[in-house]
């Protein structure tokens, strides 16, 4: 069983409003990511909230045990990953890590990554679009202790670098896996391409 972890802890300062609530195909980014992470191998879902926790929790129906509030969100993305790892139940095989600013991905891609994780038995599985690594990333449970010890300045990348021979790259035609939607211009360009 895998845990799906959606990181939505940042302040969205460049975007000007919470990224989790931005519309994509008629519904908020977060709702889209929650839907595409429904999969038989995913038994746990956690959404890490921080700066805009209150407004996001009001707008999106989340169960109490699905929400994790990262009070240290200002320390960056790794602090949210660590908050999630600490709250995962025992017995997960790993976690599928989704970023709220990489929402333009499909359930098909999620399914492919999960299939490759169980087939390859590699500790890290990630999509690759035209030679570029993207998101979401699956980290094996064996790497949880390393994620908890990773330096905040390099984040989860530090763990990926250490295990460079343990990365299973999954080729995809989905450009969304490498699109970081951090500001209105990037968002509008990406949505224009999708329509």
From TrEMBL:
<dbReference type="InterPro" id="IPR029044">
    <property type="entry name" value="Nucleotide-diphossugar_trans"/>
</dbReference>
<dbReference type="InterPro" id="IPR025877">
    <property type="entry name" value="MobA-like_NTP_Trfase"/>
</dbReference>
<dbReference type="Pfam" id="PF12804">
    <property type="entry name" value="NTP_transf_3"/>
</dbReference>
<dbReference type="GO" id="GO:0016779">
    <property type="term" value="F:nucleotidyltransferase activity"/>
</dbReference>
<protein>
    <submittedName>
        <fullName>Nucleotidyltransferase family protein</fullName>
    </submittedName>
</protein>
<feature type="domain" description="MobA-like NTP transferase">
    <location>
        <begin position="4"/>
        <end position="160"/>
    </location>
</feature>
């Amino acid at each position: 069983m895998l845990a799906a972890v959606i990181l939505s802890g940042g302040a969205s300062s460049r975007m000007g409003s919470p990224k989790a609530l931005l519309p994509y195909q008629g519904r908020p980014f977060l709702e889209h990511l929650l839907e595409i992470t429904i999969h038989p191998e995913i038994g746990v879902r956690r959404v890490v909230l921080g700066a805009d926790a209150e407004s996001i929790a009001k707008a999106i129906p989340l169960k109490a045990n699905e929400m994790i509030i990262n009070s240290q969100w200002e320390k960056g993305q790794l602090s949210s990953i660590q908050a999630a790892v600490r709250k995962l139940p025992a017995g997960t095989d790993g976690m599928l890590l989704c970023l709220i600013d990489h929402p333009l991905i499909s359930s098909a891609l999620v399914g492919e990554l999960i299939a490759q994780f169980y087939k390859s038995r590699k500790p890290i599985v990630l999509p690759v679009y035209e030679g570029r690594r993207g998101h979401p990333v699956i980290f094996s449970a064996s790497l949880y202790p390393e994620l908890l010890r990773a330096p905040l300045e390099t984040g989860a990348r530090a763990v990926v670098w250490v295990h460079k021979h343990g990365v299973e790259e999954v080729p995809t035609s989905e450009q969304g896996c490498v699109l970081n939607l951090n500001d209105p211009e990037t968002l509008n360009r990406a949505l224009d391409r999708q329509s």
